[in-house]
Amino acid sequence: MVALIIIGVLVLIVLYGVSIYNRLVKLKNLVQEAWSSIDVMLKKRHDLIPNLVETVKGYATHERETLENVTRARNLAVGADSVEGKEAAEKNLNQAMVNLFAVAEQYPDLKANTNFQQLQAELSSIENDIEKSRRYYNGTARENNTLVESFPSNVIANMYKFEKAKFFELENIADREVPTVKF
User: Among residues 94, 96, 111, 93, which one has the least CA distance to residue 56?
Assistant: First the structure.
């Protein structure tokens, strides 16, 4: 009788361990899926920027430095491959885009250009999608990290080398504000 109880307890412990392992795998995959979603949104944004630069270039040819800074920042953002690298690159790209829109503000004909207005609307939509993707990613990262750090799941996580996910955050609280662009 005692042997059956011990075997029953051991079976329950093994089943609980398998359950924790499966939850860890599920959350790891959700974090990867969420990061992939951010990557897709950032790629859309990065693909839109050259069109925006070309449109501005047609009106503001003497603003060469600003246009080159946007192009350089975009190229760095496209090349970033880690969460930390993307954070830094996107911060620089956001600043370059703010400067680009400040230049555009000086050209009434550019602001009235239909193509520019469409690109600006598309960029605004993509920015909203990026923000949603960031929230989803950070939520799944939070769930994953809680499970990886909590007892007794941390025992299984350490045993199978599950790691905490990095949050996708901006360094400066003021940078968390979406830039206001007026046309």
Answer: 111
User: Who's near 112: CB < 8 A, 6+ residues apart?
Assistant: none
**Predicted local distance difference test score (pLDDT) of residue 183:** 42
Task: Return all residues near 82 (Cβ < 8 A) that are at least 6 apart.
Answer: 166
How far is the C-alpha of 26 from the C-alpha of 97, rounded, in Å? 37
User: pLDDT at residue 118 above 50?
Assistant: yes
Average pLDDT for the chain: 87
Output the pTM of the full model: 0.77
For 26-81, how does the pLDDT look when each residue is reduced to its tens digit (9 = 90+)?
999 999 999 999 999 999 999 999 988 888 888 877 778 888 899 999 999 999 98
Q: In 10 A of CB 157, how many CB atoms?
A: 24
Dmax over CA atoms of the chain, in Å, equals 89
Query: Buried b vs exposed e over 26-64: b needs ≥16 C-beta within 10 Å?
Result: ebbebbeebbebbeebbeebbebbeebbebbeebbeebe
Structure tokens at 128: 């909203």
Q: Cα separation of 167 and 175, whole Å?
A: 16
CA distance 48 to 43: 9
